[in-house]
């Protein structure tokens, strides 16, 4: 992701100072009123909205027989969609602007949202963790016990989150190397290289996880309600602030809040476009996705497109297509690069 690195020098404030500065910068001309409104909202417990209204989605929509709980782009150019009722993952590809399923893998009951892996996708649940592969296989990994989040590092090690707020650093076969304490809970883990990024929604905290030194780095409490995080290969993390109606941009190593700006109502799913400075944000309160260019140090909306209802999962495929999954059963939406109309 290309971002103006001069931003580092201008935003070395941390904690509340960084938060306040970001809010003011993002609303030139109306900073005072927006800050007052922002401060009046209670913090924590981010949840997406579901609008009952019909939409006219951009691109094409593939009808599915159940809600979409997760969307992951695969290294081979394919796409994995996690579906509910029953819990399963559909491995497939994009053809003619639609999702075509090639293989189906049954998942454990109440599986967490799938995450990217070097081979297929990782899955966490009350049963532990496992890996589903595009050839139809599923293999449990180790004996981790129940997990609340999972992520794979670049070198194949695995991070797992647990209900007591700890993060376990594990070998690729699930063996526990270390158990790190610092957070109230772990709702999502993401990875950029060999650095982890943890989100706790109950108290809207985010933290860096350093598996090489077995440490949890700075813990910040930014925004009003941290929702979903997406990371880039070069160490950045974009996090939706669902209650604060904002997008937050962090440097994960060390953890610093660099940008924060309004994006629309109830942002939830976030996806980064590799090799670009574009962050896609799904607005669950508007049934809309927006493309934000963050290269200048202050987010700039460069595209806005209508989506399926309940756009709660999203990914950018290898060919640049945007994949949006509906959590209320309205299907999987594919928006080609041409239909995105990015500058």
From TrEMBL:
It comes from Dietzia timorensis. The lineage of its organism: Bacteria, Bacillati, Actinomycetota, Actinomycetes, Mycobacteriales. This is Uncharacterized protein. It comes from the Bacteria. InterPro entries: Host-pathogen_enzymatic-act, WD40/YVTN_repeat-like_dom_sf. SUPFAM superfamilies: 3-carboxy-cis,cis-mucoante lactonizing enzyme (SSF75011).
């Amino acid at each position: 992701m290309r971002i103006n690195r001069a931003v580092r020098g201008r935003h070395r404030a941390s904690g509340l100072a960084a938060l306040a500065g970001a809010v003011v910068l993002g609303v030139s001309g109306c900073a005072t009123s927006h800050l007052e409104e922002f401060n009046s909202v209670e913090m924590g417990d981010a949840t997406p909205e579901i609008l009952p209204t019909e939409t006219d989605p951009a691109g094409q929509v593939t009808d599915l027989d159940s809600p979409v709980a997760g969307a992951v782009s695969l290294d081979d150019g394919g796409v994995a969609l996690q579906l509910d009722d029953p819990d399963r993952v559909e491995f497939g590809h994009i053809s003619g602007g639609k999702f075509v399923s090639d293989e189906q893998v049954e998942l454990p009951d109440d599986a967490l949202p799938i995450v990217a892996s070097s081979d297929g996708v990782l899955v966490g649940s009350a049963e532990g963790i496992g890996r589903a592969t595009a050839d139809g296989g599923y293999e449990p990994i180790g004996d981790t016990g129940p997990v609340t989040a999972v992520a794979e590092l670049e070198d194949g090690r695995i991070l797992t989150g647990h209900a007591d707020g700890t993060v376990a650093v594990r070998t690729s076969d699930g063996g526990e190397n270390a158990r790190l304490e610092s957070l109230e809970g772990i709702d999502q883990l993401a990875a950029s290289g060999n650095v982890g990024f943890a989100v706790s929604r109950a108290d809207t905290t985010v933290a860096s996880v350093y598996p090489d030194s077995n440490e949890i780095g700075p813990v910040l409490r930014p925004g009003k309600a941290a929702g979903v995080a997406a990371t880039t290969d070069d160490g950045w993390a974009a996090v939706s602030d669902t209650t604060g109606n904002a997008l937050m941009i962090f440097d994960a190593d060390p953890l610093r809040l660099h940008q924060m700006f309004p994006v629309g109502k109830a942002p939830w799913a976030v996806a980064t476009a590799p090799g670009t400075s574009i962050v896609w944000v799904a607005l669950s309160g508007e049934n809309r996705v927006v493309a934000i260019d963050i290269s200048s140090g202050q987010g700039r909306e460069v595209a806005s497109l209508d989506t399926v209802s309940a756009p709660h999962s999203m990914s950018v495929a290898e060919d640049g297509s945007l994949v949006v999954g509906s959590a209320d059963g309205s299907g999987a939406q594919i928006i080609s690069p041409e239909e995105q109309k990015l500058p």
